[in-house]
Specification:
Blueprint (H helix, E strand, L loop, with lengths): L8 H10 L1 H7 L6 H14 L2 H4 L2 H13 L9 E6 L2 E6 L1 H9 L4 E10 L3 E5 L5 E5 L9 E10 L6 E6 H9 L7 H5 L1 H14 L6 H14 L12 E2 L37
Antiparallel strand pairs: 1-2, 1-8, 3-6, 4-5, 6-7
Helix pairs in contact: 1-3, 2-3
Pfam family, one: RecT
Protein name: Rect protein
Amino acid sequence: MSDDIPKTPAYLRKQINTMAGEFRNVLPSHIAPEKFQRVVMTVVQQNPDLLGADRQTLLASCLKCAADGLIPDGREAALVIFSNKVQYMPMFAGLQKRVRNSGEIASVQAHIIYENDHFVWRQGLDGHIEHTPLFPGHRGKAIGAYAIAKFKDGSDPQFEVMDVEAIERVRSVSRGKNGGPWAQWWDEMARKTVFKRLSKWLPMDAEVDELLRRDDEIEAVPYGKEAGPDPVVTAVPSKLDALEHVDDGVDRFEDEVPGPLSPEAKEDYA
């Protein structure tokens, strides 16, 4: 694709509209191509750096995001620029949706732990988590995160806990460690990080495994190389609140905090 193409929203809209048939072929039935295209254009208009980025990679990233059944709205996925090339990065809500639709998992959650919350974590055969956020009041700084998966067969929930030091170690080997989603949405990236660690113990289909593998490749710094320029984030969730989001039938857990997962209270998750 020529580098001298017009860098205007109107020309990009024309290109996106031309791809409507391709989007329709790969998107799941509950996501209308028109809605997907509208989200893409809204993101581009709010983040004009995309217009100057490599156009072929922008269009390819949009198509790949659509093929994975996600929307690049900053919640399910984000469009990120690395060295003038665009890549789409799944966010926690997108991974959450795909995992829940994959078969054996009934629900998955991930939450940030703050220093003024009540948090108890016990390991062992009767391991459980108790988390009560401080409310109202200032919850303090983040001290960790955890993820929980509940299975459709009713077996004990599986969970993973990471403190901030462990989360920051993961961040330190990301090529976007000083910018992009890590700088703008630390809590979302922390939730995604602890979920990805939990996912290694979960039964998932090949498509979700492939999605997680690609996400690792996007974030990882090749061994022996320094991280490149900080990525440019191209979707700001707070500015997309007015969009009509897809009703995909998947519960959102961003603001939920589970009750105790002790044996006495597991019925809360039944």
